[in-house]
Write a structure and sequence with these properties.
Layout (H helix, E strand, L loop, with lengths): L1 H29 L3 E2 L4 E3 L3 E4 L4 E4 L4 E3 L14 E4 L4 E4 L4 E3 L2 E4 L2 E4 L4 E2 L4 E3 L8 H5 L9 E3 L4 E2 L4 E2 L4 E2 L4 E2 L4 E2 L7 E5 L2 E6 L4
């Protein structure tokens, strides 16, 4: 029975892969998103692009969403939300696994960036900090996020508003990035701290 489930489950997943790639390209383009060459999105994706928002994804990008395409993310669906007057720019050769990108102002992701499974990237507090503002759904703080080239973000990390992650830095799994990280660093923890410099030799 396990062999049958494995055989049919695996084959169905790969049978539907081209269909999802085709469907996602149409879905994103019809909402105004700009997609580079060889940009593929596997499986169903929670997706919203405001008519006044901007989404641009570069060449050779791979975004996986659920269906165990990445064993670490299992069946968690990825999510992209770009609000009114917000901008999400994703560079070339970027890989994203079942992550949530919630953009209300600006998120810029450079080239050759790897974003691990179930990572949260949000440039907003989502809710006001003052309880009186929360009662009336008042204004919330938002600040741009910049992730520079060749950054690696480990699984289940959280990247918070106003953060810049310097080029070639590595974010350890499960880290909470609440302040900017210099280039060429390995960081981890909650809140994350610099563990060591990347060996540049």
């Amino acid at each position: 029975m396990k062999i049958i489930n494995y055989a049919f489950g695996g084959s169905l997943k790969f049978m539907f892969r081209p269909l999802f790639i085709w469907w996602n390209r149409i879905k994103l383009r019809t909402t105004g998103a700009k997609l580079g060459k060889h940009c593929v999105i596997f499986n169903r994706l929670y997706y919203f692009l405001h008519p006044k928002g901007k989404l641009k994804i570069g060449n050779n990008c791979i975004i996986s969403s659920g269906s165990n395409f990445n064993q670490l993310s299992r069946n968690l669906k990825g999510s992209i939300y770009v609000g009114e007057n917000a901008t999400l720019l994703i560079g070339d050769n970027v890989g994203i696994s079942s992550s949530c990108l919630w953009v209300t102002e600006s998120v810029i992701i450079g080239n050759h960036v790897t974003i691990g499974a179930d990572t949260l990237i949000l440039d907003t507090d989502a809710h006001p900090l003052d309880w009186r503002d929360r009662r009336k759904n008042g204004p919330r703080n938002s600040k741009p996020i910049v992730i520079e080239d060749d950054v690696f973000i480990g699984t289940r990390s959280i990247i918070l508003k106003g953060v810049t992650i310097g080029a070639r830095s590595v974010i350890g799994a499960g880290s909470v990035v609440a302040k900017s990280i210099p280039p060429d660093c390995v960081v981890a923890g909650n809140p994350c701290e610099i563990i060591r410099r990347v060996n540049l030799e």
